[in-house]
Amino acid sequence: MMQRLRAQTCAKLSRSHSVKCEAAGQADTVRIAFRGREVEVPRGSKLRTALLRAGLTPHSEGAMYINCRGIGSCGTCAVEIEGEVQPAVWTTAEQLRLNFPPHSAPGNQRLRLACQVACSGDLLRVTKYDKFWGEGSAALPDLPSAHPVAAVAEAPEAPAGAGGAATSRTAAGGVTPLGELEFILDRGARQAERRQQ
């Protein structure tokens, strides 16, 4: 119990003050296994942001362009998660969205919205299901081996290209069509970006 409390406190501090968590016996990163890939992401990052920065997407192909960008209103980032995330229970946004069509019981009970949970365990196994909102019953297959994946989920913005617009590394991979604007609603991502500057 005390170890868990220290880990939770350390996770909160690391998000707000860039504190290292080795003293609590906890690494600064979380491993995520998703569609046949494994990436390491900063502990405390939103799952949606972490996947996108790693060149992966919790959205179906069509929802990559049409989604709420992380406020929890569309439900297109619904995934099944094995491992520890925070909060451990559905947020209010998840209660509202995952109980609204096309999501329904009992299939919705296994889902979480990637935009509403922070990575906190050592290893997260994330499964995306078929259909536009991920409400299907068939898990999406592993990604082809040629699919590019960033080594760490902290992908800094690249310099402006020939068109004058700055793009993120993952925008080239095709999972963040809006580049860094994809993360504008993720307060944690904005805070991490400010700390890096």
Automatic annotation (TrEMBL):
Pfam families documented for this protein: Fer2_4
Superkingdom of origin: Eukaryota
CDD domains registered for this protein in UniProt: fer2
GO MF annotations, alphabetized: 2 iron, 2 sulfur cluster binding; electron transfer activity
InterPro entries linked to this entry: 2Fe-2S_ferredoxin-like_sf, 2Fe-2S_ferredoxin-type, Beta-grasp_dom_sf
Keyword Iron-sulfur: yes
Domain 2Fe-2S ferredoxin-type: 28-132
Protein's GO biological process: electron transport chain
Record flagged with keyword Magnesium: no
Record's keyword terms, sorted: 2Fe-2S, Iron, Iron-sulfur, Metal-binding
One cellular-component annotation, GO: mitochondrion
Protein name per the record: 2Fe-2S ferredoxin-type domain-containing protein
Organism name: Chlamydomonas reinhardtii
